User: What shape does this take?
Amino acid sequence: MLFNFLKYLQPTNYFQLYRKNGTSIFPIVSNLPDQILEQLNSDQNFISKTALEYDLSWQAVQLGYVGDVNNYTSFEKLPLLDEYYFIRKYFNKAWVVYVLMLRIITFKNPIKEISAFRNSKKVNQGEKVTLSINHSDYFQFESYLVKSNPFVSIIIPTLNRYEYLKDVLADLVKQDYKNFEVIIVDQSKPFKPEFYKQFQLKIQLIQQEERALWLARNEAIKLSNSEFILLFDDDSRVEADWISNHLKCLDYFNSAISSGTSISTVGAKVPENYSFFRISNQLDTGNVLLKKEVFRKIGLFDRQFEKQRMGDGEFGLRAYLEGYKNISNPTAQRLHLKVGSGGLREMGSWDAFRPKNILSPRPIPSVLYFFRKYYGNKCARLSLIKTVPPSIIPYKYKKNKKMLLLGAVISVFLFPLILLQVFISWRRASVKLKEGDKIGKLE
Assistant: This one.
């Protein structure tokens, strides 16, 4: 990573890793176009020129630069003061203290660490560029891909959610883009095939006896008659231009993946970092359009994640490592209802880090399988240190900073129990790693 301290704060971020061709995601600053550099903040407070350039590269990626200039293939070691200065710019003060404590307890020189921590106080979080890079011509862009009218396969696994699926399919009927099929893999009991007759849609209906999300998506992808796969959830609502906005994004950015955004309340504001076009560091199978070539190249979804979590995140990382461009697309928005019944709720946990029972693994073993497979044990442990204590607090408070802090405090008193939960998860993840992946191929 261009700044070493990011390994503490983002240990399992896609952008921590080099792609298979040896490049990072971060553009070499000297190669950036002038119109991009003009939109970045050249921070002269860094003591090394290299740190300043790395900061500009970081800004470019975070604020939405999507280009084809040469990227860094290695990074130089930076002065300790620049490392602290960087994380102060972009992260809350509490996380800066967190990094300091980690550095000290891992036997780094405490005098040097505390000195750099104190001397970097001249910046506070918030003194950073917050405007996204301008893609204003996007909205006047006439998409050849949309005009060429390619056939699209929309894939929807469903389980006991006919009440919500009715609205999902009604939204698809209203789409302004009409050349698509809907492949529905229905795992409901009782199965109601007559339900689908009310919709004027080209539907391929599959009844699947086994309750298995990744099996459902994999089988549907194999049956699709299109070179464009649009993955969707059975508890979502979308506007009439949803499909066309996904296709337009692929065309404009010459990308293979368009990752739509999600909100969970009508009228809610899209989170700031999802409100503009940028290279995405995640993939959400509830709202994403992919070229079918991606599946041919890297395989289908890994069934080691069946009835667990992060199967879509793992697939997204595989696509990133292969060099596919994944664009976070704010124009392809969905309302994700996150209903409390049906779907994955009946197969496993609501949340990857919050077990249902006191002696259940924390996190779900598939999470550690994913982290350890791609990032290694050290980064997996750093991720546990960062994510497990806040997970003590219930899911509905996951964005409440005060409650998350309370969870961290409570975790100190529950340490033996939490350690046991983590041990169980680690051991089960080890079994998965020994078994190897279960990634099918698309012929």
The chain has 15 helices and nine strands. Residues 365-387 form the longest helix (23 residues).
